[in-house]
Fold this protein.
Amino acid sequence: MSAMGLKHLFASPAFKGYEVHLFSNIASFQSSLNFVPYASLIYSLSDEREERRNCLVCIKEISATHGAIQRIVLASDASEASLINQLSPSRLHGVLLKSAPLADLQEQLSKLLSENRRVNDCHNNHWNIHRGRLLSPTERAILQFMSCGFSIPEIAIRLDRNIKTIRAHKFNAMLKLGVRSDVGLLHAADILTHFPVPDHRAPRFIVPHFS
């Protein structure tokens, strides 16, 4: 969504009491954090792989350094919204679709912003993806192996599972992430490698060194 589109989005009377700051890059926003007490961060995504990664890195840093700031993402489509939800290393307070009718988008955003005083207690993601649908440690491990170039048979050996089981986990990961091809899955895996899962149950693996 362009700067003009964002201005149009906030033109509704429902946002009369808000002051909107627009930034074209993450560095400018981060430097402004030293002197502006933001209530919410609204990150408008393009459908580019690099941009998704930048978004998740930015949100992770904000959650760690400014945890009281509400974190909202405007996704291009349902597939991108699903990827962001599943791969975000920190909690999001809302993921909204830019493709929604303007009035609906304004209503959803207004509702989210009204909750900013209790962001740390907000457990419901407005994209309505349940915790049970998040990637399992095994599914994450498979994606990380794939991003390193391992084949399904090689992954099966390293995780001590049969090939059919690995393929089933891979299929489940594709469903959860909303992707339909190995290319889409690798895009997700590429993002995932930047955010190791802090779960002791997750299978550990070592990437071999070839001399």
Residues 135-192 form a domain with the Arc Repressor Mutant, subunit A fold (CATH 1.10.10.10). The radius of gyration is 19 Å.
